[in-house]
Structure formats: structure tokens, C-alpha cells
Known about the structure:
The chain has one domain: Metallo-beta-lactamase, Chain A, CATH 3.60.15.10. The strands form two sheets. It has a seven-stranded mixed beta sheet with strand order 6-5-4-3-2-1-14, with no helix packed on it. A seven-stranded mixed beta sheet has the order 7-8-9-10-11-12-13. The chain is globular. The longest helix has 14 residues, at 227-240. It is 25% helix and 27% strand. It is α/β, with parallel strands linked by helices. Helix 7 (198-208) crosses helix 8. The chain has eight helices and 14 strands. This is Metallo-beta-lactamase domain-containing protein. It holds the Pfam family Lactamase_B_2. Residues 26-193 form the Metallo-beta-lactamase domain.
Amino acid sequence: MSAGKIDVHGFEKETLFFKNIASGSKGNCTLIWDSTDLIVIDLGITMKKFRDSIKSLDLAGRSISLFISHEHSDHIGGVPTTSKYVDMDVYMRPALSGSFRRKTYEMDGSLVVGNFEIRAFEIPHDAADPVGFSVLWHNRKISVVSDLGKVTDRVIESIRNSDILAFESNHDVEMLRTGSYPEALKRRILSDHGHLSNEQSAEAISRVATDDMRIILTHLSQENNRPEIALNEVKSYLENRNVRYRSIETADQYTGSSLYTLER
């Protein structure tokens, strides 16, 4: 993220904002907010980067609620320090543990924070109780899903009718198979509890895309993928099947995604 402020002024009070600020194996964090509350999904970044993002997006004064998808360090690494110095409620599955303040949420249930309803749903990954999230705000819906080895019917049903879909597109299969990773790591990534390939991501998106959906491809491997490759594979798959959508982009490891706004 650039050092300068991003202008989020000039919008109506009843506006929903979305921005991924980091995406990849070095750290993940997504921000969703309105005029009173900030929902944070995963915090695998440093406290400095988080605070700098809050400042540049002019988010001071909002109540902060952090939801953790699973315990891998690129999703939870910044939580112990940040939650100590930044006032926030931390929500995670009961199976996760830590020395920081935390609350738990129920699988397949929902939790209301201000104008938001946060729903967690099970995903297949090699972690303790990993989940994806759908965040509902009035008549709007944002879904954030990464770190899954396959796309289940439960995932598809959970992400339907999303206005914004942030969805994993981790690797190009050929790049992974011919790359430098140890064979055991390749097998893990390709397994049903690993990560989604570009083609798997495209197939899932094709089942839920709508004319007005904004799509963000996330958790791209820096070793086994490239933004242009992921975009080409996913867009080609969708176009060959006449699947329509509003926009598509990739989220960067260091700068994240574009800033999105949705009106009530």
C-alpha cells in the first residue's frame, strides 16, 4: 500500500467498503467496513502495516472485529502483538488457541456485529477447523475464501449471490509440477486439503458468478503462479462458458486489491 492516504470521502453514510491489503504466503488481511464498524478477516501482517493501512484509509474511531479463518502463520501471525496494542475483538474457532484475548464463533452459525452479519462455513484445508466467511450488510454480501484444496457444495452454496467474491487462485498446475518445490510440498498443495489451482478457482467461480459480481483472485503463489497467468486462465475459462461478471483482478502480496464500494 502506498504511503499516501486513499480518499474514501464523498460517499454516502450508507456505503460498504472492501479492500484486501495483503494476499499470499507472506501474509493475508482483508478489511470490510462501514461508517461505524471495521471487520478484519485474518491478520497475517505486522502491526505497523495494519496501523498504516488504518491510517491511510482513515478508519480510526471504528469498532474493530477480527475474524480468523485458521491458525497458519500467514493468517494469524500479526494477532498476538496487534491485539495487545490495538483495541479489537478477536473471533476464532474453539480449536484454535493463543495467549491473546479471543472469542469463539460457531461453525455454520452467524454472528452480528453492528450492521454486519458474519457467517463462517467449513473449507477443506490442513488446519484445525478452517473456514471461509460471508459478510452480509443490509442487502449486500461479500465472501472471502482461501486456503482450500477443493471446492465443496457447502462452499458453493455459501458464496452464492455475492456482490464481491475474494477467492483463492493459488497456482498454475504445470508451474507447480515443474517447479523447485520438494515433492512432498507439491503433493500437499495439490491435495484435497491444499490449495486451489487457477482452473479449480475458475470452475468454482463459473458456478456462482453474476453480471454484477466483482471478483478478486487471492493467495497467488509467488513461485508457482503469476497475476497475468491466473487472470488469463480464469478469464478464458469463464469466457469460453459465456459466464458474465462485472470485474476481475488479482490481489497482490504487498498492495492487496483495489478499493471497492457498495451502496445500500
